[in-house]
Amino acid sequence: MDKLLYVAMSGAKQNMNSLAVSANNLANANTDGFKASLSQARSMQAFGEGLPTRVFSMTETPSANFSSGPIKTTGRDLDIAVKGDGWIAVQAENGGEAYTRSGSLRFDTSGVLRNDRGTAVMGDNGPIVLPLPIEKVEISQDGIVSVRPSGATAEVIEEVARIKLVNPGNENLMRGEDGLFRLMSGENAPADPSVGLLSGAVEGSNVNAVHEMVSMIDLQRQFEMQVKMMKTAEENDRASSALMRIS
């Protein structure tokens, strides 16, 4: 009896974990550059005294869906989208380097170039800082950032930095709790000159909202089934107890 209860209990718990993954994906269906998380369930052997006969289920997120999201044309000078494979290097909160596909950029009052999440964009020599005041910013296909100082004539364009673009291979990346990707080795990826940008556009989320909704419905039904199994185990236990009292 306890085996049935154990399997149902662990299954219900992991269904809740899978629901959280799908719910997070759905919540980011409109987040620029977001990559949907994948989830899978597998059986795990329980270890410990008296436990070798027990097997429980475990939900894990082995990777992310790295397919490109839709390209949305904005016409804004500070909006960029990565063409094909590749990533934009940014500075994480701990000061380390991380990677994203979110390319809606802006600069703060100090001139630091940031994306829409407030993360500083990295150049060849650290975070990119624009020389204020400026009238116009242009970003080329190879990531070169050029500015026109305030008051300068239209033909005056100065190159100030190059956005660090990398392509370490998606199989070498993992997502952190902050939503940014990093190399599994903990090292920084080298700049890749073959990575190109589209100016005046951003990449949307690759989340399929319909798929995530169907997945959530399916997981909720599985959860209900696990709960029913736990109730059945309880009813069987009561029936067994009653038979023992009769005997």
Automatic annotation (TrEMBL):
<dbReference type="InterPro" id="IPR012836">
    <property type="entry name" value="FlgF"/>
</dbReference>
<keyword id="KW-0966">Cell projection</keyword>
<dbReference type="Pfam" id="PF22692">
    <property type="entry name" value="LlgE_F_G_D1"/>
</dbReference>
<dbReference type="InterPro" id="IPR010930">
    <property type="entry name" value="Flg_bb/hook_C_dom"/>
</dbReference>
<comment type="similarity">
    <text>Belongs to the flagella basal body rod proteins family.</text>
</comment>
<dbReference type="InterPro" id="IPR053967">
    <property type="entry name" value="LlgE_F_G-like_D1"/>
</dbReference>
<feature type="domain" description="Flagellar hook protein FlgE/F/G-like D1">
    <location>
        <begin position="81"/>
        <end position="147"/>
    </location>
</feature>
<feature type="domain" description="Flagellar basal body rod protein N-terminal">
    <location>
        <begin position="5"/>
        <end position="35"/>
    </location>
</feature>
<comment type="subunit">
    <text>The basal body constitutes a major portion of the flagellar organelle and consists of five rings (E,L,P,S, and M) mounted on a central rod. The rod consists of about 26 subunits of FlgG in the distal portion, and FlgB, FlgC and FlgF are thought to build up the proximal portion of the rod with about 6 subunits each.</text>
</comment>
<keyword id="KW-0975">Bacterial flagellum</keyword>
<keyword id="KW-0969">Cilium</keyword>
<keyword id="KW-0282">Flagellum</keyword>
<dbReference type="InterPro" id="IPR001444">
    <property type="entry name" value="Flag_bb_rod_N"/>
</dbReference>
<feature type="domain" description="Flagellar basal-body/hook protein C-terminal">
    <location>
        <begin position="199"/>
        <end position="241"/>
    </location>
</feature>
<protein>
    <recommendedName>
        <fullName>Flagellar basal-body rod protein FlgF</fullName>
    </recommendedName>
</protein>
<dbReference type="Pfam" id="PF06429">
    <property type="entry name" value="Flg_bbr_C"/>
</dbReference>
<dbReference type="InterPro" id="IPR019776">
    <property type="entry name" value="Flagellar_basal_body_rod_CS"/>
</dbReference>
<dbReference type="InterPro" id="IPR020013">
    <property type="entry name" value="Flagellar_FlgE/F/G"/>
</dbReference>
<dbReference type="Pfam" id="PF00460">
    <property type="entry name" value="Flg_bb_rod"/>
</dbReference>
<dbReference type="InterPro" id="IPR037925">
    <property type="entry name" value="FlgE/F/G-like"/>
</dbReference>
